[in-house]
Give the backbone structure.
Amino acid sequence: MPQAYASHFRSLHTQRSVLLLPNAWDAASALVQARAGAVAIGTSSAALCWALGYRDGGALHVGELVSAVRRIARSLKVPLTVDIEDGYSEEAETVAKLVVEIKKAGAVGINIEDGSGSSDVLASKIEAIRSRIDASELFINARTDVYLRSIAQGLEAVSLVTSRAARYAASGADGLFVPGLSDLAETAQIAKSTELPLNLMALPGLPALESLRSAGVRRLSTGPALLLSAYADLEKSTSAFLGENTDALFHNALSFASTQQLFAS
């Protein structure tokens, strides 16, 4: 079944419509998203870290990451891709070994980022991963943080992303993730310049989905937005309860039975 999921997940990046990929942080959130109609699920590194009690940004223990992936994948019936930040190591072989474990835990894709580091470092990690896992078994989404970290702007940012995309594609990447990118003209330039399916992250004020599709976007993920939205509701409900308004707990709540049913298998 993992092989079939891997093949299906890859095909989702070549369809006419944009792959809408909600990002989960635990088994329950992933299953709720799948029941809502998601055809694939991704994890958000930030959301997963927070759910496990860590700050985002390299603090997560890799053993806890692998265990979390295993719990999510165990009962999920759609493909799962996992954000692994920078692989939690500068050593390419160490990162590759981690990705092998993540694949064994049930993932058919990963995001791996360059952050503020050299593109050569990420390229070497992708090469090491690809030497251990065939493209038919794992979709590698190379994330570049040129826009997210404001490393460059305008045409300079487009040029830098384009050169990094070519480097990552040559190393074995299957997709390009550019969080922070929202300008439609720049999006179209980048999409046209690379063979890799372009993935953006949902942001306030992002152009309409059809415009993104026309510009060449093939995948749109949520990042930590769904967790932040869910936890805003949690804070409101808790405040209402502490204010002795117990009825507020049941407004828009899932039923116990329907939630229990998510884990029936």
Remarks:
- Residues 91 and 125 are 8 Å apart (CA to CA).
